[in-house]
Amino acid sequence: MNNLDLNEVANQLRCPSGQAGEELAEVMFKSNSNMIYKTVDRLQLHQEDIVLEIGFGSAKHLPYIFSTAKDLQYYGVEISSLMLEMATKVKESLSQEKIELQLSEELNTLSYPDKFFNHCFSVNTVYFWKDPVKYFTEIYRVLKPGGSIALSYIREDFAQQQPFAKEDVFHFYRTEWLIRIMTNIGYSHVERWQYIENTLDKLGNKVIRPFVVLKGKK
After folding, report:
1. Residue 144 structural domain
2. What is the CB neighbour count within 10 angstroms for residue 66?
3. Is residue 1 part of a domain?
4. Which of 21, 89, 157, 205 has the most C-beta neighbours closer than 10 Å?
5. Which stretches of 104-183 are assigned E, i.e. beta strand?
């Protein structure tokens, strides 16, 4: 990672690959684990819920998800074949759980039937959504009535200051704008929570980082 220029870091964050991607995956999990756990907690999972995650990364957080409720069904989609490979090893260590992992070039088109999931969540992926309307609409389609979405991301003003946040890779959206999109699509009871955490940035430096969790219901 230390040998990569900032453009390469930006592209690796979007879709990790190769040796640098493996190293980044470790940094990403350390950096994002608190965000992931807070996001999962907001879903308030119940027994036998069916859960979709967009962008599962190395999937080292799966044990935590399955610790929150019994007999969950987890589905994950990812654009990085390296992340799928790493996540498959985690899946194999949880052979007693119901886990389905999928590689997909386009995450704004989901290969699942209507009204299939109780919950959907995604952590630190919204920066790579060129058209959030398509993503939110597709997630709305696959959620069951009463189902929920939880989305977490670094606060816009902080994220824009990061040296690797290149404009040709990252897209920054104001929380108010995302809430307006969700409401227009049909999500109800849209709530936001703001947190500040001590963590590592994607270059491995210690930072005090603000992040947001959005949650809405179908």
Report:
1. 6-217
2. 19
3. no
4. 21
5. 117-123, 143-154
**CA 126 vs CA 79, 131, 199: distances in Å:** 14, 9, 20
Positive or negative: CA dihedral 174, 105, 110, 117: negative
User: Residues 153, 172: contact at Cβ < 8 Å?
Assistant: no
Q: What is the spatial distance between Cα 151 and Cα 124, in angstroms, rounded to a whole number?
A: 8
| Residues 179/72/142/211 CA torsion (nearest 10 deg) | 20
pLDDT for position 3: 43
How crowded is the C-beta side of 175, counted as CA atoms within 13 Å? 21
Residue 72 included in any domain: yes
Q: Kindly state whether residue 14 falls inside one of the protein's structural domains.
A: yes
How far is residue 20's CA from residue 7's CA, in Å, rounded to a whole number? 13
Give the DSSP letter string of 109-129: S--S-TT-EEEEEEES-GGG-
* CA 209 – CA 178 distance, rounded (Å): 20
What's the number of domains the chain is made of? 1
Residue-level pLDDT, tens digit, the chain, 218 residues: 444 555 666 666 666 677 776 777 777 788 889 999 999 999 999 999 999 999 999 999 999 999 999 999 999 999 999 999 999 999 999 999 999 999 988 778 899 999 999 999 999 999 889 899 999 999 999 999 999 999 999 888 877 776 566 565 677 889 999 999 999 999 999 999 999 998 877 667 788 889 999 999 99
User: Does 21 fall in a domain?
Assistant: yes
